[in-house]
Amino acid sequence: MAALLITSPRPNTVFTITDEPAWPAIRFQSNATLAAGQKLTWDWKLSWGTFSRQGKEIIATSNLWDAQSVLFQSLTGGVITNLGGQLTVRVTGPGGTNSVTVKIIGTNPSSAAILAFLAAQPDSRGFDAILQHESGMKHFNAQGDPIKSFDNGFGICQLTSPAPTFEQVWNWKLNIAGGLALFATKRASANAYLSQSGRTFTQDQLIREAVCRWNGGAYHAWNGKAWVRPTTILCDTQTGNIGWDMTNPANTGKTEAQLRARDKGTYGSPSSPHDWQYSGVCYADRILG
Amino acid sequence: MTGNTRGCVTPIVSWDRRIIGILALGLMASCGDKPAPPPSEPLKALTADTLSLPGGATLHYAVQDGQSTAALTPSGTQLKLEADHTIAPNAGVRAKPIGQLGTQVILATDEYPSRPGGMSYCQAGHEQFLRVFSLTPQLHQTFQTKTASCIDNKELADPGIVWKPETATLEIHWLTETKTYKLDPTGAVH
User: Fold this and answer.
1) How far apart are CA B174 and CA B160, in angstroms?
2) Which residues form the domain of B118?
3) CA distance B30 to chain A (A)
4) CA dist., res. A129 & res. A145, Å (int)
5) What domains does chain A contain, in order, with CATH numbers?
6) d(CA A106, CA A167)
7) For chain B, how many structural domains are there in total?
């Protein structure tokens, strides 16, 4: 009996997930000729970084294992295909055992596709502006792996906490859904804040309040009659979210240019004493105009 | 800041770094029907902060290697303060007095920058704790609760924390509910 071999694909073959995203066709072909009652056991493991999934399938009717159909069902219940990384498949049966490892990489969607997807999601207004400002609209790096930041932020939304799932790391739509879920908590907080004591507000104020809270803190202040932008915050319009509390005597009476000239040297070392602050108000102003 | 922390009493405890600012903005102006204050107060990059107590004692807050502590001088008693994962690494701390009961029970908040997430999430946010300390027989904490958090979406109404020394009553006004606590002379919170 010939030794059992996986004849296709070749080791280290690269398969690419489409920008949809849709999984590629990956069929593992062995050289086995099965007699009645004989079976092949296919063990598979898909891993990327600290993430992994694995499983096993026993097939008696064929010497072929279709990774797409099996993993499609096994990983996601047939809902969506997404995961990538190193896929190692080992076949065991008459004639011994053999394994092959291939690589699965991703494809970036276009910015238009990302925005179209986002626009179709409920209550996404405001988050689209954050995404455009923050992400570069990229989910994968040049090698086709999900973008990973120094602080373990993954994918287009740089999901960090709650820690993203394997699926959210690889599937850009699920990644955006994760970011949007986080934004929803800020939108809910914004709604609770603006509606306190029966106060009224506009949809634009709600969006601005939610975007501000994404970065930190409340945007609007109540002036006794309406919600207004606080006049006490002056922003460095050349930065993303740096500003000054103008009630601080160190800042009072100075212009943006004067304060920037004084402080810009400390922007890069926020742990040193300074009279500027990261400001969600300035962040919302910068992003929403 | 995601919440406003203010008391409706004239404070005896003072914050020796910015006494004027705190008294004017944070405490004495909190009870009238006045416009809401700016929602974001400056959180200077402080690795330590100090509250001055009656009789010349001080309560000194510090953060080192992610561990926040409070130390009472001149006794030298030091407490480790329980915080959580939402605080930024290498965070500074800003302490703020809320009030006191007699001379031996102190109410104060300690506030830290939030641990930022991806896409500038909570980079400008703060995490704040309200604590009650008893100074006798030695410094110890009798109560703590988290009163503001960008990451956990915790937020107070305005005014958020109201201390009524005449009845030893602590009110915490959340946006959706108010919780009321009674303190006894030992600092125990009920």
Assistant:
1) 7
2) 14-182
3) 14
4) 25
5) 6-105 (2.60.40), 109-219 (no CATH), 230-289 (no CATH)
6) 12
7) 1
Q: Is the whole-model pTM more than 0.90?
A: no
- Report how far residue B48's alpha carbon sits from residue B60's, in angstroms, rounded to the nearest whole number: 7
Chain B residues within 8 angstroms (CB to CB) of chain A: 1-2, 21, 25, 33, 35-47, 90, 92, 113-115, 117-126, 150-151, 153, 155, 157-158, 175-176
Residue from the list A216, A221, A275 with its beta carbon closest to the beta carbon of B38? A221
Tell me the chain B residues in contact with residue A274 when contact means C-beta distances shorter than 8 Å.
Answer: 44-45
B3 belongs to a structural domain? no
Question: From first to last of its 289 residues, what are the pLDDT tens digits of chain A?
Answer: 789 999 999 999 999 999 999 888 899 999 999 999 999 999 999 999 999 988 888 999 899 998 877 766 665 655 445 789 999 999 999 999 999 999 999 999 999 999 999 999 999 999 999 999 998 899 999 999 999 988 889 999 999 988 999 999 999 999 999 999 999 999 999 999 999 989 999 999 999 999 999 999 999 999 999 999 999 999 999 999 999 999 999 999 999 999 999 999 999 887 778 899 999 999 999 999 9
Q: Give me A123's structure tokens.
A: 């209550």
CB atoms within 10 A of CB A142: 7
